[in-house]
Amino acid sequence: MIQRIRQGDKALFGQLADRYYDDVFRYCYYQTGNEQAAWDCTQDTFFHLLRFLDSYTEQGKFKAWLLRIALNACRDYFRKNRPNNYSYEELSEQHREAASIPESAASPARASESSLYHSSPENRVETALLIQEGLNRLPETQRETVVLYFYYGYKQREIARITGAPLSTVKTRLRTGIQSLQKYYENLQLL
């Protein structure tokens, strides 16, 4: 498909974007914690994809390459707009109109999901908001690593390739990010 787009069949770009749009949007949402920012970063990602598709070489997974573009779009967003650490109340306000959050966005892929999916939509929203608030409190590099590992199921070596960081750094970011999240959620339970 990529080869045909390069040869001038630009109509196929829409199919390519449709195939990966939801994944890129979810990734950007986990990174930014804001629906509008995620939409903007997703649009930037596909704009850059269209612009630089000719530079793509078949050396790995296309999705990983696309998520690297999304990662850079999110980094650009944070450089332009210093992120706010949203409070639980602010996040609740942002998501009040939503009847529910998609199950794929509510919990990490490797986490135990049975209690979350069998809970009420309100509990799923509350859980997703708490997860997002915890992610927002992590430094950018740890958040990137945690999201790629848990939400997308990438191995640490693949994350190193996507982020351009050494494998040892990815391992440290993941371990430190998990420890920070655990501490944050333990403190919430004490309240």
Please give a structural write-up.
With about 190 residues, the protein is an all-alpha fold. It contains 11 helices and no strands. The chain has helices at about 1-5, 10-30, 35-50, 60-80, 90-95, 105, 115, 120-135, 140-150, 155-165, 165-190. α3 packs across α4 (about 60-80), α4 (about 60-80) packs across α10 (about 155-165) and α10 crosses α11. About 25% of the residues are buried. The model is unreliable at about 85-115 (pLDDT under 50).
Précis, in short:
The chain is an all-alpha fold. The chain has helices spanning 2-6, 11-32, 35-52, 62-80, 88-95, 103-106, 114-117, 121-137, 140-151, 156-163, 167-190.
Question: Key terms for this structure?
Answer:
191 residues, mainly alpha, 11 helices, 74% helix
List the helices and strands and how they pair.
Layout: H1 2-6, H2 11-32, H3 35-52, H4 62-80, H5 88-95, H6 103-106, H7 114-117, H8 121-137, H9 140-151, H10 156-163, H11 167-190
Helix pairs in contact: 2-3, 2-4, 3-4, 4-10, 5-8, 9-11, 10-11
Overall structural class, as computed from helix and strand content, comes to mainly alpha
**Oligomerization status of the protein chains:** single chain
> Stretches where pLDDT falls below 50 for ≥5 residues?
83-117
Task: Give the distance, in angstroms, between the N- and C-terminal Cα atoms.
Answer: 53 Å
Give the overall pLDDT as a whole number. 76
Into which percent range does the helicity of residues fall? over 70%
Number of helices: 11
Number of strands: 0
State Rg.
17 Å
SSE order, one letter for each helix or strand:
HHHHHHHHHHH
Shape: globular
What is the beta-strand fraction? under 5%
Biggest sheet, open or closed, and with what strands and sense?
A: none
